[in-house]
Write a structure and sequence with these properties.
Elements: E1 9-12, H1 18-31, E2 35-38, H2 44-51, H3 60-74, E3 79-81, E4 84-89, E5 92-93, H4 96-99, H5 101-108, E6 114-116, E7 119-121, H6 129-137, H7 145-167, H8 172-180, E8 195-200, H9 203-206, H10 215-221, E9 224-227, H11 234-243, H12 254-264, E10 271-277, H13 281-297, E11 301-306, H14 312-345
Parallel strand pairs: 1-2, 3-6, 4-7, 8-9, 8-10, 10-11
Antiparallel strand pairs: 4-5
Bound molecules: iron/sulfur cluster (SF4).
Iron/sulfur cluster (SF4) binds near residues 98 and 277.
Length: about 350
């Protein structure tokens, strides 16, 4: 499908690796004068069109990905970026569906387009980042090593800026917007939340607002502080994986066992919510381990599974019930503490308003 093309426009599906790597892609392609056209945000139509082309058992993120390719084709985009991200570090692999994305797309999308199917495989010699980036831009006639290296630096700059901001506590979309403007703004999170939850899931599941029905917004509206992998350093994530007795094997283990392992030990976190796609093999194994460990730590846990049939009403009901339980638990622990203080000092003021913010 791929052949040389003079036009310097690349279509990037707003799905899968977009949620991890877009700041890098933006800096990299932009530096080489390649214009990026993104697919539109996920809608019900994106999901149903994507789902219509693949077998039912395919996980939701892949169905969404296919829908985004169709969206780019409708926009008339002919060069579409479909990377094959095999291994992102030595002996650290992506799941077979991510690895085989170009083959999957070739088999299910029949329209003619130039698929830019660069392969990243850090477990293989000669298939590292430089080779991957060279493959990305070869179809645009760019082969100059120095230009590619310079663009790579621009990509890392944008990517690192994004991560500096998310680690300071800035929400995903705000940090992305500043990073794309070339800005670094360190957020000053002043709002205090009575309850904190660790949201555990892949970026493409929790930041695709249609896929997980704006879960972050919903929790914040319930007066819950949401903590994710984006606030953690790679050392904290590695430690989290180890604390669950795990060896890192899956590329997206940081977002699952690493995040859960870290926040399970954090006393400021009142509960854990995992979001996984129905039919995801790696996630089902990781969630099982997280569930076992959460029991040991006595940390409340809610497992949510998403697919294109997931109804918003049921999803919200489960979330609300979980958050209600956390509020009750917190209230009870404050009252207990006050009773202890009362015994010590023979006087107390009962004030749990701070956690009564849910009308
Ligand atoms: S890791 Fe799971 S959700 Fe992600 S693409 Fe693979 S099977 Fe789908």
């Amino acid at each position: 499908m791929t052949h040389m093309n003079e036009e310097k426009v690349i279509g990037i599906p707003r799905a899968m690796s977009f949620y991890h790597n877009y700041p890098f892609y933006y800096g990299f392609f932009g530096d080489l004068g390649i214009k990026i056209v993104l697919s539109d945000v996920t809608t019900k139509q994106t999901m149903s069109e994507g789902a219509g082309l693949v077998v039912t058992e395919t996980c939701l993120p892949i169905k969404i990905y296919v829908g985004h390719i169709l969206n780019l084709l409708k926009k008339g985009i002919k060069n579409i970026f479909v990377p094959s991200l095999q291994s992102v570090d030595t002996k650290i692999y992506n799941c077979s569906k991510i690895r085989g994305l170009p083959d999957l797309i070739r088999n299910v999308v029949k329209e003619d387009f130039n698929m830019i199917e660069a392969t990243l495989d850090k477990s293989e010699k000669n298939q590292g980042l430089y080779e991957f980036l060279s493959e990305c831009v070869k179809p645009f006639g760019i082969t100059d090593k120095n230009l590619i290296k310079r663009a790579s630096k621009a990509g890392w700059r944008c990517y690192n800026n994004f991560h500096v901001m998310t680690k300071s506590g800035m929400p995903y979309s705000k940090a992305l917007s500043y990073a794309l403007q070339g800005k670094v703004v360190i957020g000053n999170e002043s709002k205090e939340y009575p309850i904190s939850i660790a949201l555990v899931g892949h970026g493409y599941n929790i930041y695709d607002e249609r896929a997980c029905m704006k879960i972050v917004d919903k929790l914040e509206k319930m007066d819950v502080k949401v903590c994710t992998a984006l606030q953690l350093s790679s050392e904290q994530l590695d430690e989290g994986i180890q604390s669950l007795g795990n060896e890192k094997y899956w590329a997206n283990e940081d977002e699952m066992t690493g995040t859960a392992g870290h926040y399970l030990k954090d006393n400021k976190i009142d509960g854990i919510v995992t979001v996984t796609a129905f039919g995801c093999g790696p996630d089902s194994l990781m969630v099982e381990r997280i569930t076992r460990k959460a029991k040991q730590f006595g940390k409340p846990l809610l497992n949510l599974t998403i697919d294109e049939q997931t109804g918003e009403a049921g999803f919200v009901t489960r979330l609300e019930a979980f958050v209600d339980m956390l509020f009750r638990k917190k209230r009870a622990s404050i009252v207990n503490k006050i009773n202890i203080d009362k015994n010590e000092h023979n006087q107390y003021t009962l004030n749990t308003n701070m956690i009564e913010t849910k009308s």
